Amino acid sequence: xxxxxxxxxxxxxxxxxxxxxxxxxxxxxxxxxxxxxxxxxxxxxxxxxxxxxxxxxxxxxxxxxxxxxxxxxxxxxxxxxxxxxxxxxxxxxxxxxxxxxxxxxxxxxxxxxxxxxxxxxxxxxxxxxxxxxxxxxxxxxxxxxxxxxxxxxxxxxxxxxxxxxxxxxxxxxxxxxxxxxxxxxxxxxxxxxxxxxxxxxxxxxxxxxxxxxxxxxxxxxxxxxxxxxxxxxxxxxxxxxxxxxxxxxxxxx
Length: 253
Fold this sequence. Notes:
- By secondary structure, the chain is of the alpha+beta class.
- The protein has helices at 26-30, 67-75, 98-103, 142-153, 203-210; strands spanning 2-3, 12-13, 17-18, 34-42, 45-46, 55-56, 79-83, 92-93, 96-97, 113-126, 129-136, 157-167, 170-171, 198-200, 215-216, 223-229, 232-240, 243-249.
- It folds into 2 domains: 2-170, Pseudouridine synthase (2-Layer Sandwich), CATH 3.30.2350.10; 196-249, PUA domain (Archaeosine Trna-guanine Transglycosylase, Chain: A, domain 4, Roll).
- The strands form 5 sheets. Strands 2, 4, 7, 10, 11, 12 and 13 form a 7-stranded mixed β-sheet that branches.
């Protein structure tokens, strides 16, 4: 078994877990956009950029900022931009995890990296709390958005609540609580690949792909494709130069 994206200890929501051969699909799940409902508290920065860290920097009342200003600041995060990961994160700094250096009291400044915010919107504002929903690309830290929101507003801020609502087309509403997990609740492997085009294979093509051999792509353009036979996911292939070349094979000959 393997999960496809760590949640912070205080966070709730959807965790996609892959079982058996399906663990080989992790990279296709991790690359999909994720949607979060987040709460930031204006007025205080913390060492971890969330409620688990000690306060740092000057304090601010965190009130008095008009809702229009907050909404405009949030909207400004949409698109692709550079983001500095939190010091307490799993990013590597000089070959070591950033959080390990920070916990030893060393000054840590992870390098800013490009991230993509597909959509971000203000849900509610009750000073000092700002509740927002964001759909983001891989590697985006919601803690860093909360921190940077406070910087843009001049108040400082940190994240106080986080819930992952969706990963690609998978929604937390369809998730199964751990204490209710049964064999019957496990979904087929192809359920995590809903973002990919699908090619139905005939029996000859199924056997060829199960042996790792390429089949003709037909009218499919370049990119990843889910190859299926009925309800069974046989492989994920890459369409290249008119051929579907298997990159992950799950089916058996």
